[in-house]
């Protein structure tokens, strides 16, 4: 056996051993990361007093009934959380959707829930805005009279604070409520920039809890998901988000959708 052959065999052996060691280290790194992630994100956090957890209003915008909608909505009625409410928002009267929601509400009477229809809310908002415009005209007339009176008597100063307070709407900042952004056109109809957001405004204004969760109709939740999200909502946190993963999609198109969303 020549000297070069011995060197070649030794180098090949060392390279093979190093490759095996690197592969082992990579697997140990992945196993360590998975173990830490499982410990970090899947450990059960139990607060000292469940009553201290803030109430949460869950807003569910719905458009149509699909094959998984009933099962998805059912998971929200089975959440393990002390105080929460479900606020369902529809654009128009849909007998199938309403029947499905009412069936779930009857099946889980202990869960607070309400149903809102966007078209009815739009009509009410339009009527309220029309009434406000009439009030504005009256206030403007009164203000003109007050201004005329103040010319002759400076101590009579017109006051508009009550009118402004009655029309003032909170702004959106963290958990504060926001303005609806609706406006009446010259034709008297309401301008709706985003129909989906507008459908949720009725539920948003009626929400009774300080925190709210917006969840699309195609989402399902595990029993402890809301509990885990609430624990992340500390004093220095303004928004908690969970990236969903796609499941229960049948066929080739469903498989492509699952892969695309999961990668995203």
Which regions contain 5 or more consecutive residues with pLDDT less than 50? 144-189
Mean pLDDT: 72
H/I helix tally = 8
**Strand adjacency order, main sheet:** 3-2-1-6
Report strand %: 5-15%
Shape: elongated
- Helicity, as a percent range: 40-55%
Structural class based on helices, strands and sheet pairing? alpha/beta
Radius of gyration (CA) equals 30 Å
Q: What is the helix/strand order?
A: HEHEHEHHEEHEHH
Strand count, sense and barrel status of the largest sheet are: 4 strands, parallel
Record field, number of beta strands: 6
End-to-end C-alpha gap: 57 Å
Biased composition (Polar residues): 148-163
Keywords: Glycosyltransferase, Membrane, Transferase, Transmembrane, Transmembrane helix
Membrane topology: Multi-pass membrane protein
Protein name: Ceramide glucosyltransferase
Task: Walk me through the structure.
The chain has a four-stranded parallel beta sheet with strand order 3-2-1-6, sandwiched between helices. Strands 4-5 form a two-stranded antiparallel ribbon. It has helices spanning 3-42, 69-77, 95-107, 118-152, 161-167, 195-206, 225-232, 251-263, and strands at 56-62, 84-90, 112-117, 183-184, 190-191, 211-214. By secondary structure, the chain is of the alpha/beta class. Mean pLDDT is 72; it is low at 144-189. The longest helix has 40 residues, at 3-42. It is built from eight helices and six strands, in the order H-E-H-E-H-E-H-H-E-E-H-E-H-H. The chain has a domain at 50-128 and 160-168 and 190-260.
């Amino acid at each position: 056996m020549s000297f070069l052959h011995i060197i070649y065999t030794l180098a090949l052996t060392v390279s093979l051993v190093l490759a095996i060691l690197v592969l082992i280290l990579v697997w140990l790194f992945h196993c360590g990361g998975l173990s830490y992630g499982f410990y970090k994100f899947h450990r059960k956090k139990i607060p000292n007093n469940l009553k201290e957890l803030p109430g949460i209003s869950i807003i569910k915008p719905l458009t149509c009934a699909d094959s998984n909608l009933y099962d998805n909505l059912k998971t929200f009625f089975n959440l393990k959380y002390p105080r929460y409410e479900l606020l369902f928002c529809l654009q128009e009267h849909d007998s199938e959707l309403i029947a499905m929601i009412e069936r779930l509400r009857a099946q889980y009477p202990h869960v607070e829930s309400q149903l809102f229809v966007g078209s009815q809310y739009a009509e009410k908002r339009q009527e309220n805005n029309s009434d406000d415009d009439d009030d504005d005209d009256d206030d403007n007339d009164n203000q003109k009279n007050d201004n005329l009176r103040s010319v002759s008597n400076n101590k009579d100063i017109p006051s508009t604070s009550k009118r402004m307070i009655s029309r003032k709407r909170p702004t959106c900042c963290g958990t504060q409520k926001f303005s609806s952004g609706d406006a009446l056109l010259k034709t008297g109809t309401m301008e709706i920039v985003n129909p989906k957001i507008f459908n949720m405004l009725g539920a948003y204004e009626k929400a009774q809890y300080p925190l709210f969760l917006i969840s699309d109709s195609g989402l399902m939740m595990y029993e402890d998901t809301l509990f885990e999200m609430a624990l992340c909502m500390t004093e220095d946190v303004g928004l908690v988000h969970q990236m969903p993963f796609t499941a229960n999609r049948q066929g080739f198109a469903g498989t492509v959708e699952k892969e695309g969303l999961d990668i995203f």
